[in-house]
Structures are given as C-alpha cells and as structure tokens.
Design goal:
Number of domains of chain A: 1
Mean pLDDT of chain A: 90
CATH class of chain A: Mainly Alpha
Order of helices and strands of chain A: EHHHHH
Oligomer: heterodimer
Largest interface: A-B, 17 and 27 residues
Largest sheet of chain A: none
Low-confidence stretches of chain A: none
Strand content of chain B: over 45%
Shape of chain B: globular
Number of strands of chain B: 7
Order of helices and strands of chain B: EEEEEHEE
Number of helices of chain A: 5
Distance between the termini of chain A: 21 Å
Shape of chain A: elongated
Number of domains of chain B: 1
Mean pLDDT of chain B: 91
Strand order of the largest sheet of chain B: 1-2-7-3-4-5-6
Largest sheet of chain B: 7 strands, antiparallel
C-alpha cells in the first residue's frame, strides 16, 4: 500500500547487504592453491621455495577470509527466528568455521572440498532464508 | 491522528522487525521507553526514547544497539522533532 511510508530503523552501514559469494570464492581459492602446490612438485631451487611460500600464504589468507565471512553471516545476518526453520544452523556454521582451520593446517584437496561443501550448504540456507 | 509506517532495518530488533507494519499516534506524548518516529537528517527514523532532559532534548537509542545509528552518533534531538509514538505493536 503506497500510503504506508517507510520509517528507518537502521545503522549507517547498510543493513541486509549480506552475501555468500565472497566466502565461496575464498574456499575455492584455498582449493586452487592446494592444486598449485601439488603441480609445483618438489625441488630445492630457491625460486621453488619462494613459490611454495606464496601458495601457502595465499591459502592461509583465504581460509582466514572464509572464516571471517562465516562469522559475519552467522552472527549478524541470522537471527534466533531462523533456528526454527533451520534447526542445524549453528552446527553447520560451527563445522564450516572449524573446517577453515583444517584447510589452514593441511595441504589436502579433501579438506578443501569439505569446506566448499559446507559453504555450499550455508549458501543454500542463506538463499532459502531470503525467499 | 494515527498513521501507518513500515519498518526498514534491524536497529529496533527484536521488538520490531524489518518489514513490520506499525501504527503511530501523533497525539500520544513521548516518554522514557516509548518507541517514537522522529525526523533526523530529513528522514523519519524509529527509535526508543532513552531520556528527555529539562531542555526538552531527547536521547534516542535503537534496541539493537550493535546495529543502530542513534543519539550516540548524532546527539540528542529536540523534542519537537518527534512526529509520533508507536502505539501498535506496543513492544
């Protein structure tokens, strides 16, 4: 009804602008870095060491970024009301955040795939909650 | 006079949700704890009255303090800037 005007109850930082693309991009970047590490092979050449460090550093940064994105969506977007519709919400977010740690600790494609799957599940819940 | 408004944003959560319809009374006087509609920077905002001082300056606060821009940011506002008090739902 057009005669009902909006009244603003928000903060300067726009509310409601949440997305899951960034966390998925970060998770997929971690996998890409592990692929690059596998392709790199073993070598004692300093250039090789340099490349190895860069790959691990980039993976570390993106696992951290993924974890931050998970925490923001979990704590800022989702509200107690959502738990009624998604009772395993906390478990999924908790597992995803823990999985970011696993990705940091290892150079395992399997651990990266687990993270991507968990982020995908979170993305699906998020998309469903916006309907 | 009463009128309707639709809430935009989460600063009054959990008392008032984003998208919720509220009924506002122009006649009811604001008091400490009232949820009011006020003009701030050219826009109608919805906040709760934290206090009203002897100079008729009102301190506004969002219930969801982590996600609210209110008097902590823009200071107290003159009482005359309050357009009405939310009478339904009376949370």
């Amino acid at each position: 009804m057009k005669f009902i005007k909006p009244v603003y109850a928000h903060c300067d930082v726009p509310c409601g602008l949440y997305e899951t693309d960034t966390m998925m991009h970060a998770a997929e970047t971690c996998r890409k870095m592990v692929e690059k590490y596998i392709d790199l092979g073993k070598n004692d050449d300093p250039e090789h060491h340099n490349q190895f460090v860069r790959i691990v550093l980039y993976k570390e940064e993106h696992a951290k970024k993924c974890k931050e994105q998970i925490y923001v969506l979990w704590s800022d977007y989702f509200k107690p009301d959502h738990l009624q519709k998604y009772p395993d919400l906390h478990t999924k977010f908790w597992l995803a955040a823990k999985q970011c740690g696993k990705v940091k600790q290892t150079l395992s494609l399997e651990e990266c795939d687990k993270l991507i799957m968990l982020v995908k599940e979170i993305s699906e819940i998020f998309a469903d909650s916006k309907k | 006079m009463i009128y309707f408004r639709r809430v935009v944003g989460d600063s009054m959560y959990p008392a008032y949700n984003d998208g919720q319809l509220v009924v506002v009374s122009h006649f009811k006087k604001p008091a400490k704890g009232s949820t009011v509609i006020a003009v701030q920077n050219g826009k109608e905002v919805m906040k709760r009255v934290e206090s009203i001082d002897s100079n008729q300056m009102v301190e506004l606060r969002g219930d969801n303090t982590e996600h609210s821009t209110d008097s902590r940011k823009y200071g107290k506002i003159p009482k005359r800037h309050i357009l009405g008090v939310v009478i339904w739902p009376n949370n």
